[in-house]
Every structure is written in C-alpha cells, then in structure tokens.
Amino acid sequence: MARTSRAAKKPDYTDTLANVNTNSRPSELRITDMRVVDIVGAPMHCGLLKIYTNQGLIGYGEVRDGASRNFALALKSRILGENPCEIDKIFRRIKQFGGQARQAGGVCAVELALWDLAGKAYGVPIYQMLGGKFRDKVRCYCDTDVHGRHTGKEMGKALQERMKKGFTMVKMDLGIGILFQEEGTLSAPLGFIEDFGKARGRRGGKLTLEERYTRNRAYDINNIAHPFTGIQVTEKGLDILEQYVSDVRDVIGYDIPLSIDHFGHLGLGSCIRLAQRIEKYNIAWLEDMVPWQMTDMYVQLQQATTIPICTGEDIYLKENFLPLLESGGVSVIHPDILSSGGIYENKKIGDMAQDYGVAMAVHMAESPIACLAAVHSVAATENFMVLEFHSNDCPWWDDIIISKIPKPLIKKGFIDVPDLPGLGIEDLNDDVIKEHLHPDYPDMWAPTDAWDDDFSHDRLWS
Ligand SMILES: [Mg+2]
C-alpha cells in the first residue's frame, strides 16, 4: 500500500536541479566566439583573449607581449564550431599560422584557451591532463631593469631588493648601451651607433608618408643582426662590463644564481671575450648573445666558455629547438609559452631537452593568464628549473584575474600550483582591465564578427 501512495505522488526535483552544474557535457561543447582586449603595463603590451562556448564556459588565453591581436583573430574562422577539448587536433590545424617569436602569438593564445576550456569541462587542473605534476610549487626568478645610466652597485641593490622578497634566483640586463657615452669602449662603423640611437619611429595616430618612412627605417636598423652590425667591444669596454658584474656580485654575494640578458647586437668575438672575462663571477646563464637561428655560432660560444649558454624565448615549435640541442650549442633553453606553441608543446620541448641533458627555464613577461599557463605546463615537466617573473613592480598585476587562488600569486619567489579546473581563473576583472587599456585599442571585448568567415585555401600541399 505504501508503495502505491509513493508512486502516486510525483516528486519535484526543481530545487535540486537548480544546483546541478549543466556545463559538464564535454562531448557537446562547441566554440561559438572569440574576443580580445589589449592592455599595457603588466609589464608590457598584452593581448588577453576569451574563447566562448555553447555551454557558457569561457576559456582564457593571451597573445604574446607586443604581438598583434590579429594573429589570434585570423584563427577564429578556423575553429568556430569545433569542440575545444580536441586540443591536439585543433593545434595541428592552426599551427601553420604561427611563426617565430611574436608571430606565434595567435596560435599560442588559442592553445591556452583550449586547455582552460577542457579543464573546466572535465573539472580538472591542466597539469593533471599533462600527466601530473613533478612539484607543488614553481620557482620564479625575478628580472630586474634599472633605467637610465647606472652602475653595478645600483643594480646590485635592486637585485638585493628582489632577494629580500624571497626570490631565489635573479637576472639582470648588461648591454653595450652603458658604453655608448664612454669614449674608446666600442668599435663600430663610424656613425652607426648614433644612427642606431636615433632610430625611433612613432606608433599610432595618423602618420604621414614621411613619418611612416622614418618608422620603417628605424625598424630596419633595429633588425640588423649581431654579425652584421660590425660592433666590437674594446679592452676598455670589457673592463667596464667586467667591473659592473664584479660590483653586482660584491653587493649580492655568490650564493644566489645570477643570469644575464640583453647584451646588444655585438659580434661573436666580443661575446666570447666578455663571457671569458666574467666566468669567475659564477653566472647562471648568458641569454640570447646571438640570434637563436645561428646554430654554429652557439656551438662556438658554448665551446669557448664554461658559462651555460641559453636561448629560446623566440623559438616556435619543438622541431626548431632540435638543431640547437643536437649541436650542443646550449646548456639551458628558455622558451616562452606564448611563442613555443603553448602549454603542451612547451612540455614536449622540455622533455626533448632533457634527453640532451639540457635544463629548461621559462621566459615570461606577461599577465597572470600566461603565467598560470606556464605554471601548469612546467609543473608537469621534469627538467624545469625556473620561471621568469617580470612584473614585480606592477601592483595591479594580480588583480587582472578573479580566482580562488590566494593572492599574491607569487609568494617568497614561488607560485603554488593551483588545484582548480583549467588554468584556475574564474573571470577577468574588467574594472582593472579598463584602467589599463592600450591607447591604440580602446575597445573591450568588442564583437569580432568580421573574422567569422575569413577563408583561404590553407592546405600546404597539392
Ligand atoms: Mg630575454
């Protein structure tokens, strides 16, 4: 009898169903839209990206610092309607539209957002989908700029401030720029350095043809690669650079690893002479002394010094790291997750480097979106050593994202690997973004319908 009366009364599950997350239908998930916003000061010009879906889930990505948002938007018509959980399939379709350095910005931005969506759809953090983590927290090194004319002592004090915040590795710039005003420190074709210093082109606004010509000339001068500038450092110049490093070590001591970047476009011979001069200061790595494509020069450089030689922030895809690794020209690679091909490709690059006995540091001068993408990727990569953090002086950097991850993200030089779905980001803070919009791109998350049906015959063979 009791059974009959229960059957007669139809249960009402309305309240219960109101609390059920109906987003979790991964097999039916589809990409419906892509939008972007450009900000400045975190610390560079960053393009933040959203990929929308038919189930209300939004994935976050980022276009590499200083790259055009159009690299990402050109991919929109090629991924609309796809299931974002099919990450590798989509990546293999779009990777032909990425180039080296910032030209990879669109492909990588999309790849990040796909991983974020897949993680949210299945309710797991990205690192778990990569095979799990090797570490619970990620070590960060702090890059340090000192603007204007400065000394090794001043740089040492700036680095010391980073160390007081808990950073366990540091990096500084040491370029031939500090020699420009010192007589007898550089040999170069007469007038070249002056031309180089004056080569500044205006961006944005309405430019005349003459202003455009000037800007293009500045572009040309800035793109003369190291072997072709004819710049060599003199013994006096080397004395000054060596003294600078010596003064830095006097301030910070020898316990902490110190790496060096941004030497300027000088010839290989000068790079080798400088490297040999500063070996005794125990340098963690010398970064991008020559263009990464010049593999044979990397071999000569690495064979001439005991300091680990490093490059990689402008290399796109695993196969482009291979010649350097095979040659023995590098001891540390330094990919950027927004140029290397993204979260999965970066792990593959690290794993490949490990086979050659090469460590992986990771370049990062971007927003918390790219930072967290790097955190998930390197948490799952065994030979990872350290992640760059370039926003120590940007007080609103953390505020770009809304997340359950405790802030600040970086505590005493480390980031905890988040156990939240996807990247671990719930939303972006539009109030903060609005305050820091790039002046050339005043729109925020504006419709991008014009890119919906952009089409070309993309096949790479006949
Ligand atoms: Mg660098």
What do these coordinates show?
The protein is of the alpha/beta class. The chain is 35% helix and 16% strand. It has helices at residues 2-8, 14-18, 70-73, 76-79, 87-94, 105-122, 126-129, 152-164, 192-198, 209-222, 235-252, 268-278, 295-304, 322-327, 343-355, 368-379, 430-435, and strands spanning 31-40, 45-53, 58-63, 137-144, 170-173, 186-187, 232-233, 258-261, 283-287, 309-311, 332-333, 359-362, 384-389, 401-402, 410-411, 414-416, 427-428. The strands form four sheets. It has an eight-stranded parallel β-barrel with strand order 4-5-8-9-10-11-12-13, surrounded by four helices. Helix 13 links the parallel strand 9 (283-287) and strand 10 (309-311). Helix 5 runs antiparallel to helix 6 (105-122), helix 8 packs parallel to helix 11 (235-252) and helix 15 crosses helix 16. The longest helix is centred in the N-terminal third of the chain and has 18 residues, at 105-122. The model has no long low-confidence stretch (mean pLDDT 93). It binds magnesium ion (MG).
